[in-house]
Structure formats: structure tokens, C-alpha cells
Amino acid sequence: MVKVSLKDVILELQPFSDELVDWCKSNKEFFDALKNIYPDKFISPAMIMVTKPPNGDEVIGIYNYSYKQKTPIFKQDFIINVNSSNKIFILYTRNPNGSSKYVKDINEFYDKYAKYGYKKSDHHLTLDELPIELQLRAKRSIELSKKVNIKNIPQSQIETIYEEVMAIKIKDRFEKVNLP
How far is the C-alpha of 60 from the C-alpha of 78, rounded, in Å? Predict the structure, then answer.
């Protein structure tokens, strides 16, 4: 077995399409810019919201609980599935490395997509500001953040967890909820 990391395990646990997971694995800069793979700062509640503005793109909103902040909040970054093709993805986030072809600053997202109803006020949310349908999972993330201890996880345990995740991973593993 190829050596896997905790980040690999977290990626496989996300409600991403197989194409997006493969994109993350093949684009290191994109993968490294995802907040949800950094459990020392963020807890991923594995919640996304998918919308399709009239321009043909698919907008994937990714929520992460930023529990290390003085006032913890849920941060939402966005992945664009360009032309809904599952071939090219662009991540919009706060990236300390600046913008590139596939990782762009979150403000660029709002400049481009605000006309479709996406607002900067949706970027940092409290639990109460999340859609009600997401709040139970969000509460579980808050509880988990109080117990998180990722230091010194043995490589053998990471590999065992990865094997178990991959063994149960099925194509239709997502719970789809239509929000108003």
C-alpha cells in the first residue's frame, strides 16, 4: 500500500464527486489550499451546498468549522466545477500563496458570482446563520472540536482507517437535501 496521510483520509471522507477527489489528488496546489484537510485548525462537517447559476458552472460551497479562532465560526469556500463538466475545478479561498490558475482569492469569487446572489456575508457564518438543515451536522462538528487530538496518530492507524474508508465508500454515499 502507498503511504497515505491523515489529509488523504479526510479528503476521502468529503462529500465530493469522484472526479473532484481525483482532481484534488492530481493538483497539489489545489489540494493544499483546501481548509478541510487541516484538522489542527478546522473540523470539516462534510457539508457542501451545490448550486447552478445560469452561467453553466456548478458552485460547490464547502463549510468548515474554524475552531481555533477566538470566536469560532463556519467558513465557506467555493469550488467551481467549470461548465459543470467535472473536468476543471477552481477553488476560491483565502490563500496565503495568492491566486493561481486553479486557486483564487475568495474576493475574486464574489466579484464574479455576486450577480447570481452570492454574498460576502455568506463567507463567515455562526451556527445560527447556517441553513437549518445543516445545523445538526454543524453541532456535531462543534462537539468534535472540543475533543480533537490529532497529534502523534501512528501511521499504521491512519492506514487502517484509510483502508476502512475505502472499503465502505460507495458512489451514492451522499445525503442530498433540497434547500429552499
Answer: 5
What 3-state class would DSSP assign to 49?
strand
Residues pairing with 60 in the sheet: 50, 79
pTM of the model: 0.86
Structure confidence by residue, pLDDT tens digits, 93-146: 987 777 789 999 999 999 999 999 998 887 888 999 988 888 998 999 899 888
Tell me 117's DSSP state: T
Beta strand segments in the chain, E: 42-43, 48-51, 58-66, 73-81, 89-93, 103-105, 124-125
User: In this structure, what is the dihedral angle of CA atoms 48, 53, 55, 60, given to the nearest 10 degrees?
Assistant: 0
User: Which of 51, 16, 47 lies closest to 132, judged by CA?
Assistant: 47
Contact 92, 109 (CB under 8 A): yes
